[in-house]
Amino acid sequence: MRRIGALALLFAGLSFATPARAAQHLWFISQIFSDASGTVQFVEFIGRSNGQNLFNPTVHMLTSFEKMNKLPFDRLANGQTNGKHFLVATQGFVDMVKAIDPSSTFAPDFVAPNGFLEPTGDGVTFLARTRGDEVLNIEFPLDGRSVSRQRTPATETGVNGMDAGPLRGPDGMPVPNLARNFAGQSFVVPDADMDGVVDPFDNCLNLANTAQPDSGGVAGPLDPQALVADGIGDACQCGDVSNDGRVTRDDATLITSALAGLPPFGSVRGLPGFAKCDVGGTTECSADDAERILNAIAGTEPGVENACQLPAPAL
Questions:
Q1: Between vectors from CA 42 to CA 39 and to CA 46, what angle results, nearest 5°?
Q2: CB proximity list for 40: less than 8 A, separation 6 or greater
Q3: Which residues neighbour 50 within 8 Å (Cβ) at sequence distance 6 or greater?
Q4: Quick check: is 120 in a domain?
Q5: Does 154 reside within a domain?
Q6: DSSP state of 209
Q7: What is the pTM of this model?
Q8: How many domains does one find in the chain?
Q9: Which of 43, 79, 226, 230 could form a disulfide with 216 if both were Cys (CB 3.0 to 4.6 A apart)?
Q10: Cβ-contact 6, 66 below 8 angstroms
Q11: Residues 58 and 195 in one domain
């Protein structure tokens, strides 16, 4: 990990009469979050004094990688900043909020480009003249739930760099994210299967699949080889007992042969995708599942349902 290099994020200037004491250096980094792709990211700050709402050209937020992204930082709504938070988050974060709740009024205070933090690891420094806070050598948890920040800085002056990994609570467990903005609103980034892909963008909501492959869908009259991706990830494509990411006549044949104890797998539990056998009707791998696959190919009912009970994520 390189230490802080050139400016990666620059606060836009604001012309105003500044008092002798800086009016923005008493902000400290409280949470840093990234998903596995770098699309949903945020840095949350907490104020340690009032009157810290005016950002001038001496204020910078830097990352370890030299990404020259200018943000429209100006000023916060008022000077009641002690104990308050402000939030820098990506456009992907904004899109995620709207995907979860289109009526939500939650918004970050400042919007950054997707990927302004390197999800494989980064560092963040906040500076007002020569004072501020920094968190270096971050190893993001990338479980889609937890945040980074080793501990709250003990001093209000100087730059308090420290190695940082997942923020952990008194029980030693990673601390779940809770993004908070200056208006006092909060929003949790959800990731049910903890694979680093947030729920609205996850094609297997309850089964970890960070890479998100989607090789196809369910065969039908217009797509007999199931080559058209259907938005369901390969890992949870019910009916795909061959584990090729598609549900085709081959899968129906494999189920029928396995039920009869015939090669190539000899039993249903020997099927590569046994856990994905159930496509509705029963909870077991049965002849009904093979029949439903053939119905789907023919365009008749009952067809394939994405009903298989896959292993729940470990908590």
A1: 180
A2: 33, 34, 90, 92, 93, 96, 189, 198, 201
A3: 79, 80, 81, 82
A4: yes
A5: yes
A6: -
A7: 0.81
A8: 2
A9: 226
A10: yes
A11: yes
